[in-house]
Amino acid sequence: MSNDKGDLAICRRQLLAGAAFLALGMSRSGATVIFDHLPWTPNAGNPPPRPVPGPWHFFRGDEGRTAEALADRIIPPDPQTPGGTDAGCADFIDRQLAGPYGRQEGLYTRPPFQNGAKNQGHQSEQGPAQQYRKGLAALNAACKVKLGGRAFYELSDADKDNVLHGIDTGDFKLDGIDGKAFFEQVVKDVQMGFFADPIYGGNRDMVAWKMIGFPGARYNYLDWVSRHNERYPLPPVSMTGRIEWTRG
Amino acid sequence: MTRRLPKKDVVIIGLGWTGSIMANELTDEGLDVIAIERGPWRDAPTDFPPTYIQDELRYRVRHELFLRPDQLTFTFRNKMDQTALPIRSWGAFMPPNGVGGGGVHWNGETWRFLPSDFVLKTHLTERYGAAFLPEDMTIQDWGITYDELEPFYDRFEYLCGTSGTAGNVRGQIMEGGNPFEGARSRPYPTPAQPQPFSQTLFGKAARELGYKPFPQPSGNLSQAYTNPLGLKMGPCTYCGFCEWFGCANYSKASPQTTILPYLVRKPNFTARDNSEVIRINLDKSGTRATGVTFVDSSGEVWEQQADLVILSAYTLFNVQLLLHSQIGQPYDPAKGTGTVGRNYTHQTISTVNGFFDPKKFNFNPFIASGSIGMCIDEFNGDNFDHGPHGFVGGGYMGQVQTGGRPIESTIVPPGTPKWGAAWKSAVKENYLSTVKPGTGVHGSFYSYRDIYLDLDPTYTDRFKRPLMRMTIDLKENELKQNKFLTDKFAEIIKAMGAQKLHVQYRTGPYDITTYQTTHLNGGAIMGTDRNTSVLNRYLQSWDVPNLFVLGASAFPQNAGYNPTGTVGALAFWAATAIRSKYLKNPGRLVDA
Amino acid sequence: MRKRVPLVLAWFGLLVAIVSRPAIADPQDFPQIERGRYLAVLSDCASCHTVPGSNQQFSGGRSIETPFGNIVAPNITPDAETGIGTWSDDQFEAAVRKGIRRDGSRLYPAMPYNAYTKMSRDDVLAIRAYLNTLTPVRNAVVANTLPFPFNIRAAMRAWDALYFTEGEYRPEPNQSTEWNRGAFLVTGPGHCGACHTPKTFLGGDKTDQFLRGSYLQGWSALDITNDSRLGLGRWSKEDIVAYLRSGHNRITAATAPMSEVIALSTSHMTDPDLNAIATYLKSLPGKNDGTAQLAANAPPMVAGAAIYRDQCSACHGLDGKGVAELFPALAESSLVRSDDPTTAIRIVLRGARSVGTDAQPTAPGMPSYGRQLDDAEIAAVLTYVRNNSANTASAVTADQVAKVRHDTATRPD
Q: C353 to chain B: which residues are within 8 Å by CB?
């Protein structure tokens, strides 16, 4: 029985009087009091929003270019696998910094802010957003001062690597910030963007997952548990699918 | 202005494992029960569906299912002479939030403690002499024996459908199980999960070294199961997104899969979510709880009166509410007085990563459950002679590798650069052939005089209440224990055929930034002496007889096992005491 | 001779007594009330005559969607002013069995009098006796809410002439008692055809396609004849009974409107009655139209197989067999193979919660895929499950998915 216009079926099911509401995007029923049955609404759930391509949301001026230059040294391109920039790692960081992570949302940010031991954790009022603004600026400033007026992203690859090694060892100091801590954070974020689901902007086309052989957002491996020491054959899939979902 | 709700028989603070167990038991008794949960209602099809739960960034790195520090946090210091500073973002542990609590996003590792763990003080003193124990160690007997608790371990395991191979059934040692475990009355409800490659290889290597490996008892089920409440679960599909994540396909034991659908149908049960209890109210005498005060998401303040109060809000929040409600004497380590906050413990964790020849080994690490792993128990508790070693305690160890999620699992051999072309190619080469157990060595953490919880003098929460302060460090006993165990563990990883090892001992000082399990315990401990415990052996408050406090806050010290099995068993034990004794004659169950 | 006369008189007296006893038993008689309560369960009166979530059963006010507009079910508690407290027995019977309101005007067949007519007057008055024991609820319901020209009740006279045959159920002599009981339940109080029989454009039953499935309010109600592809042909009697009793069986789970039927009606029926319904339904011959299985290498099958492997297999299994009474066995499901794929599309788009009953309290839910998958992807994966394993059915198109997506966008359930 099709549902074309010509079919006028009398039905006895109901439309809740006056209760129609759009449930898209709600992560749960919104019930404050749960009684008698499990809550339910259609279209429930809270998936991550799809990436919005386009210009930087967070980076200003030459920050984006600097982030890309860093991404390509932390994960250099090679014939088999793109580097950090082409994989979208700078885009990832940009979107993260523009969002709740950059704003330290959810963290305890009440005063007083006191310095403590390293093992007492982050105690600064400044979050990742401010740290990146400061850090990227300080990096470029230091390069300009020490390397003939050139910003970090204007250096040759070899020179860039030297700068970064120098930051690691402490030989290359950045003004006004802990350069080593900043660079450690950048490494962490670039690599995170490389391996996270592509929906966040990095790991474009799942290149990182293809590189290592991680099958992605799968859920059922029951037929492979006992297949020891064999290469898993299926390609990776992300939360937004894979090419095979639409070929056809 | 506080608005008053109609009185109920029972109010339950926190609807996690213990709150759900107690709610189900007391509603069966015909009582009118309301459970009040700070966080949101959660359910698999709406909150952890297979369309987007496999998101390492969101749920592991940004830990979206967990409490947010800005809603509530703690301050931390190692030593009493330090200033405690706020834990502004989580590191060493991740407190749960929401209906189901930690039961939503736990690994599913379902262990029992050893018989000797329950009488630890007596046992160790008898075997090694009092002088063998560190002077500042404050371990105690629990006031309950393993044999008394055994039927309740059984109840919890059958509620969950726990998958395992029994090692000791009524005194008979069974092949393939843990020969050290306390005797159990019957086997596990479902068989052990089949083990993937690296876990199987660990078992083989351990056996060849003379150990008796066995599969870790798992709350991720090996097959479809119907529990005693008629609730159905499916088989775990080894997705590798277990701990930190909710289970999408009803195969991980949680309050959602094992209790709530049955409980919610009862006309005498109601739950409120997004409502934070901020105080347990007492009458003028201070010896009777009259109910609780809570704040909803609009900031409205409500009072829920009840005849019986169950505090089941998780270790830290239990202790905090007792302190804020001024129930019992706060512990003062300098004076040696008080009980609320004493005997606070964590877990002593370390691991060894093994790098294997990628041409010979393909481990497919992403095929895993949260509770997979072949383990050995030779070095747990007092299963071995500690005399020559100069420490007490121990733990299980095993190839407990629960997934291959790439942000965390793309490790490289020691000495490899942390970035650049060499890093990239090392990641590519090693990902599929690395053994990376999460908690390879899972050791005990005994209690000490100056490791405790109290209220911070400086920092406050959004209700202007003082944050709770943790004073905690790693003592020499635990560090020695860990070195010994980690070295043993490394031998087995090597025997598996690893080319390179990265041995990572647990070192001091206790670091609030590195994750070490969320097995936090103590602070409201059970015991036989009201001068050194907060609760009697039925988890009833010595001070307020119509208050019971459930959870690992009751542990006088932590054993070398994950706590949930014991937490669940104690909840059933307390519920039975309430049903068979307390309700017939409300009042003290044990003379003070 | 003298002895026989009193005997004959006695017999005669008894005969007279039997014949002249009133046809209606005492309405305050407990057996009568209990019989009425059970008949009300069989007829599922509570469902339409109660606003969901209200604790005032039968007090009316529930808006029922029809293609002609919304009809609001009246208050049938015994309230004197706003309910049926002052109705006579004849008026009550006329409404339930003949579709005639107290003022003589016609009821719309949203009230399934064309099925309830199969009950006897005794049956209906037993229901009345039960309703009379309820607490009267004051709730004035405005019943006449259809737009012009459908609000002209007199037009129902013509409709009744076409589609309504008054009369009690007549047992078929060469069928078993159990079959006849099942036939009575299904065609009478159970009024299954109201949803499961396709309708003409005037909303009457297409009687030659009895119980072969119908579309209503954004759902496709399934074929429940014994058709092996589309209906209950591969279900055993036990499968049917389990489904009606608990909402779940080894193949499928009840959701949406059927959840309510199970929760309020069938899960409270006796086992013999459920068995009778199963016997009857299994006796109804199916369409038996064959359909070739789509080739596994057809492009939508290939795409669908990939989506299934990556997503659906998490619960429905790598082999499509699911987990008994937890996740439906898509490889064996007539819902999946239905000619009208509306329900399958709707479940995939919006998710679903299956019913929780005492026998099966788990009430597992299906997540919503409407945001992750686009129309073509949903069409592909449904085409795949409809033609995988031993399933055969037509392909589903992206347009069909788009239509359901659009139709259901503002529905609250």
A: 45
Tokens, residue C318:
């790598």
Tokens read off for B45: 């099809």
Is the domain of C46 the same as that of C95? yes
Containing B160, the helix (H) or strand (E) segment is: helix B146-160
Q: Note if B519 is an active site residue.
A: yes
Average pLDDT over chain B, rounded to whole?
Answer: 97
Q: Do B43 and A119 touch (CB under 8 A)?
A: no
- Between helices C237-246 and C271-282, what is the axis angle to 10°? 130
Number of structural domains in chain C: 3
* Residue C352, min C-alpha distance to chain B (Å): 9
Disruptive mutation site among A24, A26, A34 for chain B (greatest number of B CBs within 10 Å): A34
DSSP letter at B395 equals: E
Q: Which domain holds residue C373?
A: 299-407
* Domain membership flag for residue C262: yes
C36: burial class by Cβ within 10 Å (0-12, 13-18, 19+)?
buried
**Could you please report the per-residue DSSP string of B424-480?**
HHHHHHHGGGEE--SSSEEE-B--BTT-EEEEEEEEE-TTSPEEEEEE----HHHHH
Token output for B77: 């210091």
Cβ–Cβ < 8 Å for C134, C78: yes
Q: Which pLDDT score, from 0 to 100, does residue A199 have?
A: 97
Set B105, B123, B324, B519: catalytic member: B519
Chain B segment 263-282 residues within 8 A of A by beta carbon are 264-265, 267, 269-275
- Amino acid symbol at B322: L
Q: Is the pLDDT of residue C24 over 80?
A: no
Give the pLDDT confidence of C274-289 residue by residue, as tens digits: 999 999 999 999 988 8
- Residue carrying the six token digits 């359909």: C291
Whether B382 and B392 have beta carbons less than 8 Å apart is answered as: yes
**How many Cβ atoms are within 10 Å of B527's Cβ, its own excluded?**
22
Domain match, C313 and C398 both? yes
Same domain, C317 and C352: yes
- For chain C, how are helix, strand and coil distributed in percent, rounded to 5? 45, 5, 50
Domain residues of chain B, as ranges?
1-116+247-347+445-472+518-592
Beta carbons within 10 angstroms of residue C171's beta carbon: 12
B1-116+247-347+445-472+518-592 architecture in CATH?
3-Layer(bba) Sandwich (3.50)
> Using CA atoms, how far apart are residues C316 and C302, in angstroms rounded to an integer?
18
The rounded distance, in Å, linking the Cα atoms of C144 and C137 is: 20
Q: Are B472 and B366 in contact (CB under 8 A)?
A: no
- Chain C residue at shortest CA distance from A36: C53
Domain locations in chain A as residue ranges: 63-105+125-211
Q: Are residues C190 and C156 in the same domain?
A: no
Q: What is the pLDDT of residue A19?
A: 25
